[in-house]
Fold these 2 entries.
Entry 1:
Amino acid sequence: MNLDALFASIGAAGWGAADYGALLPHMDQGAREKAEALCPHPATVLVAAFPYYAGDRPGNLSLYARGLDYHLALLQRLEEAAARLRQEDPAGRFVPGADNSPLPEREAAWRAGLGLQGENGLVILPPYGSWVFLGTILTDRTVSNGERAPSSPCLRCGKCVSACPGGALSPGGFRVDRCLSHLTQKKGELPPEEEKLVRAHPLIWGCDRCQTVCPYNAHPLPSPLPEFREELVDSLTSADLAGLTNRQFREQYGRRAFAWRGPAPLRRNLDLRGEKSEKSIDKLF
Ligand code: SF4
Ligand code: SF4
């Protein structure tokens, strides 16, 4: 089967194949067990990139979270590809995954030579920049990547490291506990130092800073995929969330990537940004 045509037909802007064995040093025991339960005798991770940039409109949600939840969008597209692979090779196993799979997706992409290896830890795929979601198909079939070399490093200009508001990025690595993307999604009350970071941050969900400053993202091509271009929610206000029960919130926003933690972290972040939610106003009286 022509895999270039297959992945293009499901909307991927690029794809590659990584040897499963080469990814093992990047997986803990639990991840290996999960992967091997999903696909006994795994041999190859097919990894595909789907652009999501839809313009940098004002808003308080990270750009990745404004369209349809990428887990849903990618799984549907990858399942289409997996079904066609199964048709071609009924004895083969082809298991789609997007973000919540046990596979180290970025590592797989770089090993497969997909795009560039960003110092911000992201896969950069010109002309879409780093505004791409990664999805995988784990298979017990050996798929060759041709002669493609692993991804080259980015420019290493250091702009992402200097711009990171929490100091999460450094040439030595990444500190998730200082990353605003992680902190805005954290549940419960935040310790004072983390509260301070969230209070000063312009987004109530996620962080795009290490992407917006990256030269590869200066003029990205917009996504051709309707799920990430249409019916966007750019911002949430306290009024949007006021009075919603968890169930009502799920009904209204359940197909959005910012909804998986429920309304509580969004309300807390709005409060920290000085936009009092109904719940915190109630507490004052
Ligand atoms: S997402 Fe934001 S906080 Fe996290 S590494 Fe990038 S710039 Fe730093
Ligand atoms: S900002 Fe510079 S160092 Fe950071 S990912 Fe982009 S090109 Fe690489």
Entry 2:
Amino acid sequence: MIRRLIYVKYVLTPFLLSPLFILFSILFQQAAIASPHSAPPLLQKARVCTKQLYESPAKKKYRHNWERCIRRYEKVYKSFPNTDEAARALFGAGELWAYLYRYSSRDSDIDRAISLYRELVKKYKDHNLADDAQYRLGEIFYRDKKDPMQAYVEFLKVEVKFPSGDARLKASKKMEELERVLGKKRIARETGRKAAAKKKKLVLVENIRHWSTPTYTRVVVDLEDQVTYKEHLLKKDPSLKKPRRLFVDLRNARIGKDIESSIPIKDGLLRRARAAQYNTKTVRVVLDIDDMESYKIFHLYDPFRIVVDVQGEDRQLRPERKGVAPGTPERHERPKDSQKGISLAKQLGLGVKRIIIDAGHGGKDPGAIGSNGVREKDVMLKLARLVADKVRGDLRCEVVLTRKSDVFLPLEDRTAIANMKKGDLFISLHTNAHRDRRISGVETYILNIALDEDAMNLAARENATSTKNIGDLQMILNDLMLNTKINESARLAEFVQKGLVRELRTRYKGVQNRGVRQAPFYVLIGAEMPAILVEVGYITNRIENKRLCTEAYLKRTASGIVKGIDSYIKDMGLAYKGG
Ligand SMILES: [Zn+2]
């Protein structure tokens, strides 16, 4: 062993003294001298600065020492934005801000870290530090911001955006941990609420609404406040001639006097709905169901309501391609023989013959309002009518409008109508709004978790609830999306977005294509057909607001949407040819 070490020493020494080594050192130094302001040496300087800072407790006490190193990183990513070093510098600076926050406790410090990590994820999404930056965002929301719900979303983004990144495994571990934390929190919150309920009064069950066909049922229980609930499924009991029953127990609730104890429903999947005070603090809602295939139960906020969706066994088998991650629009393979496509479509009872057009908002809900007082609900009703005319005229399809006048219609009713009417496509029409009035453009959304703050805020606004409640919804969305047509919706969204932007650009300047996006919209949950939500412009943007007030722009918009639908249908080769 010793002999070997000596040997190494003797071998190395001649190399160190060799002309070759000297040549190497000169070349290296010259390279450094030749471009002292290239990205690598600058990044190196920033790193040395950081190392010295971390090693010195004395230096760490003074803010200016931190800021000096941060500035060095800043120089790299600002001067050389298109280099590998820029991404590394962003990461380094983000790390410094986050670390500094532990000393300073200044919110602005942690916010700087967040914005740098976000910038890295956005601008350098293919860099091998992008997934690590996304992971760090999760950690910041978890440890520093103490916002486990947002942390969960950030970790989820690691999985969604970087499925093959090395941060994925640790992100999913964090999500598991957070699920436990959030579960406990929920229990704590519920017990808190329980205690409050004990002191106060029981929550009133105000109404039970239902939609039912032989294949589809939606039941909505309206409550005056939040309650906890639990569902139970009872098997069919042939000896008692009882159908399968699904019952939901609502805790700390009392039943309203106006509610009928038994609601008979004929010709539906649901035979009967019953509601009764089960004991002093529990209301039991029982659904007698024939031939149930599956069900989903979830709640919506503001006002609090519980929704039960039941699918029947004899639903038409509508194939949805599998094996594609949610949210990744899939390339559609055109059938080689389009005639074959049509006949197959007919065999399966497919094809687009009925389109549901949903004009956003209405009645007491004006939607977004422009600075000139223009209301989203009015503009969208006009647009919905124009789209309907064009669909009938150009596509020869039937149209169902969810609302034909200025009336209020809850979001879950709109989806129920679409399912009841067996629409083949569902299109919800909206205008966007933003605090920053400069922002403009067209976006098309599909149902999925929101991946950025803007999408989160939009979903909160369109759902008329808080972003906190959206966070809650994001956690259960995966379950709610089972059996929904994610891929077909994404394809429809791509076509409509493209058709809309192309058509608007033939007449208008500066139309921003903001692309196909995703967010958890209440109105899209449970739709049994491809379903999208189109944001046809920003009512808060001066130019788009002006345009939205003209018939010409709305006509152009309607034409673009219908052209998009037409391309979608043609691409599928499933155009309905009558009979
Ligand atoms: Zn809207």
